[in-house]
Predict the 3D structure of the following.
Amino acid sequence: MLQTALFMAGMSTIVQSYPIGPVGGRIPVVMGTSIAFVGAIVAIGQELSLAAIFGACLVASLAEVALGASIGRLQRFFPPLVNGTVVMLIGLTLIPVGMDYAAGGVGAADYGSRSNLSIAGLVGLVTLGLNRFSKGFLRHGSMLVGAGVGYAAAVALGKVDFTRVAEAGWIEVPRPLAMGLEFHLMPIVVLAFVYIVSSMETLGDISGTLAAVGRQPTTRELRGGLLADGVMSGLAALFSAFPNTSYSQNVGLVNFTGVVSRHVTAIAGMMLVALGVIPKVAAAFATIPPAVIGGGGLIMFSMIFASGLAIVHRNVPMTSRTMVILAVAIGLGLGVELRPDVLQHLPEGARMFFGTGLVSGGLAALVLNLVIPEEGRLEA
């Protein structure tokens, strides 16, 4: 299942870069298995089976396909204010994840140790230094070089275990319907809602990525991006892989490096495909310690927030209306993300739906933008 997830992430990334008909946005977006589905999938698996999960993932993907096909008529509901707010929430809700990685990973015995923080700090310093004070490849590849230096330091400190690399095989081809398919109404309905929520994240990711070149996405790009999300997620279910969506980390990386090329992301997709059929290579990447990922992740996640802020700053007049929408959406989103227990007495379905800051804050921005009337600019 892990290998198939990597394989389908790569195929989805390639389709986003090089569309097949209307499927794909022709945009530099890396795709991968979405964390937004985890809660619902676990709940379905506990009640039913893996086959029921993949059956629901397949049928419910039509919800995102339908949304993508209709985005031309619905695009007015997702102006720069809403998209920018969603992008900011993506970054803000990922920053705690980056901190956990930098400390060694949640549940690690050496969480917060000096060695983990030193490795993360080294990655961050090298990355920032090269990005700001070098040129050419070193500047554009600063994140990669920083991670390489951090990985070398982790090896020297004995924090890398190569056992899994030695044990992994060389070739493993994904098999369709490996876990089977079952169809149950309620899981399909629940996952259809999650696909719609995932669509909001994708719209924000596309907007944040193209903010690196100072423009808003076209209807064609949004439609193709959402169709690729839905179609490739349905195809992934046929191969017993979980739904794919755009990766928000890509927004931070594109804005940090300045590399906004779909050809580059297509090459990344090919690498993911290779990881999916060569377990030994995937095992080698799996040896990267969390602290190395956290050192670069904190920069990327913070850049996601900054790119969302840039979307709003460039395209939205700063009025009291704008400030209220931003304040309520971000406050509600962060509040739910940092204190999820506030929803503990709600029905399970409601907790599942509103339990992430991205969903709560994003929906608040969407609704408030529709119901609060426009007004003039704030006086200086």
